[in-house]
């Protein structure tokens, strides 16, 4: 596990991606003074004796209840234990680690009032691979991701479970094994740990990072499908896209031109192709995929801002000894970003499935029915296309915007919520579906090109075909199809397809 210096408030998406992939963040030592000053400000605020939400009052609808000084530590412990009320399957370890890192960066900006030792414990847990077991359901995205973050905070005080190297242990035991002591919460600390958007943001960022590989692979498989169907490259002419001016569309068209450059398959029918226009799934790739790219970049910009912000409540301003209550915990920006990612994922898979359907239909593709040399005796790609259709429909159902939903909570104190956690949590499953669709297209497009024996595609696409054929031979007769799909999907997920093609496209994040 590699270490990476985290500079809170100025962390790039590339750094967040590295943490998601396994890097252990360490705070820039320059954060220490402002963390300490923030904690000291809480003590000065308490000394003033005035009621301050979440520091010496109850929470939510109980904010009018004043808490005595002797019970302040108990108040913070109680909020963690009472709010650790999530349910459902445990969140994936990489997502929880990213959530922890996001919380670490937020606390380290000196606006949350937590002590240096609290930040140090969170940092040490990340460094030692201690990941709280966090149920995936239970947040409505305001007042922050209370239930998921409470499970993280509970593990820090020795309650609940922690996963270490694939083993689930009681939190206190896991901390002890790592030479760490459970945290004893001080004033404001429980609330600071569990209030914020880090669970929603972590899930949205994780999906964004997974979608990068899927999007790039889909450009490659789209070009390969165009080759298999002997489609035209005219719709990718730069002049067409410059007239419309959308950045993503222009870049996708350029990428497709580059992927197909030098193709003997395309050259073989450039002058005698009877088709005036190809189906939209081929012809409109720049328009559809370009729009998806623009949408993903917009979501990435929102999430980068959110990841570098402070989203708990109240916020501590040490220079004036003020604790200001606001609504930074409301995850509406994350909800909108998650909905944008969902739409993009859905459309990436949808147009790819249409290309698969086109390839298996001899009336549209000019290829043998279902891409098998002996249709009838063999079913070929008949059911893989059905699987792709099923996955696309599943993603359509999941793509309904979560951000338009709201349900009042906390006795109507929290009367409008973002549903960001739900919106973000669905995305990894949607990305898995889209990846499987692109994997099927990779197999189908390569199979289609195999029928053009004696003609090679471009150097980039031939490299992709060679990559696939090193693991999956041509389907000359029916065989157990599932292993072929798994192998192709793995190539898509790990970014090998785009890498083999040498795809030169500016990144999403």
TrEMBL record:
GO terms for biological process: L-histidine catabolic process to glutamate and formamide; L-histidine catabolic process to glutamate and formate. There is a cross-link at residues 142-144 (5-imidazolinone (Ala-Gly)). Pathway: Amino-acid degradation; L-histidine degradation into L-glutamate; N-formimidoyl-L-glutamate from L-histidine: step 1/3. Its main location: cytoplasm. It is an enzyme of class 4 (lyase). One of its GO terms (molecular function) is histidine ammonia-lyase activity. Contains an active site 4-methylidene-imidazol-5-one (MIO), which is formed autocatalytically by cyclization and dehydration of residues Ala-Ser-Gly. It holds the Pfam family Lyase_aromatic. It is found in: Cytoplasm. Its EC number is 4.3.1.3. Belongs to the PAL/histidase family. PANTHER family: HISTIDINE AMMONIA-LYASE. This is Histidine ammonia-lyase. It comes from Sphingopyxis indica.
């Amino acid at each position: 596990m590699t270490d990476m210096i985290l500079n809170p408030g100025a962390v790039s998406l590339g750094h967040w991606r590295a943490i998601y992939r396994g890097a252990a963040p360490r705070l820039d030592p320059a954060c220490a003074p402002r963390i300490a000053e923030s904690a000291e400000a809480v003590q000065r605020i308490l000394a003033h004796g005035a009621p301050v939400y979440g520091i010496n009052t109850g929470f939510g609808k109980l904010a009018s209840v004043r808490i005595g000084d002797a019970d302040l530590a108990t108040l913070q412990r109680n909020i963690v234990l009472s709010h650790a009320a999530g349910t459902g399957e445990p969140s994936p370890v990489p997502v929880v680690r990213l959530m922890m890192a996001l919380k670490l960066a937020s606390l380290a900006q000196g606006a949350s009032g937590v002590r240096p030792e609290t930040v140090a414990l969170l940092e040490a847990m990340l460094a030692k691979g201690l990941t709280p077991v966090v149920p995936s359901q239970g947040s409505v995205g305001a007042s922050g991701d209370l239930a998921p973050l409470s499970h993280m905070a509970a593990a820090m005080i020795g309650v609940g479970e922690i996963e270490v190297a694939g083993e689930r242990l009681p939190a206190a035991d896991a901390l002890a094994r790592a030479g760490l002591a459970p945290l004893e919460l001080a004033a404001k600390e429980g609330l600071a740990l569990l209030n914020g958007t880090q669970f929603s943001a972590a899930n949205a960022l994780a999906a964004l990072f997974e979608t990068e590989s899927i999007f790039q692979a889909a450009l490659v498989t789209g070009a390969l499908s165009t080759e298999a169907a002997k489609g035209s490259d005219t719709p990718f002419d730069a002049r067409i896209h410059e007239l419309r001016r959308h950045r993503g569309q222009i870049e996708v068209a350029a990428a497709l031109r580059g992927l197909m450059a030098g193709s003997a398959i395309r050259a073989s029918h450039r002058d005698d192709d009877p088709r005036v226009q190809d189906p939209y799934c081929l012809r409109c790739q720049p328009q559809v995929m370009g729009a998806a790219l623009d949408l993903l970049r917009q979501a990435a910009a929102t999430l980068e801002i959110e990841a570098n912000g402070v989203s708990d409540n109240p916020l501590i301003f040490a220079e004036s000894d003020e604790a200001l209550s606001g609504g930074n915990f409301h995850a509406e920006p994350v909800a909108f970003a998650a909905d944008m990612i969902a739409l993009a994922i859905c459309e990436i898979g949808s147009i790819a499935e249409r290309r698969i359907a086109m390839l298996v239909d001899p009336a549209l593709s000019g290829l043998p029915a279902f891409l098998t040399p002996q249709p009838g005796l063999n079913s070929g790609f008949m059911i893989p296309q059905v699987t792709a259709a099923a996955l696309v429909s599943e993603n359509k159902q999941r793509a309904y915007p979560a951000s338009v939903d709201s349900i009042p909570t906390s006795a109507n104190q929290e009367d409008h919520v973002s549903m960001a956690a739900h919106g973000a949590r669905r995305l990894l499953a949607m990305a898995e579906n889209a990846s499987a669709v692109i994997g099927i297209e990779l197999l189908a497009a390569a199979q289609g090109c195999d029928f053009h024996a004696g003609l090679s595609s471009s150097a980039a696409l031939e490299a992709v075909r060679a990559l696939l054929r090193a693991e999956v031979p041509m389907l000359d007769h029916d065989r157990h199809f599932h292993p072929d799909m798994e192998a192709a999907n793995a190539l898509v997920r790990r970014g090998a397809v785009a890498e083999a093609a040498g795809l030169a496209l500016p990144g999403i994040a």
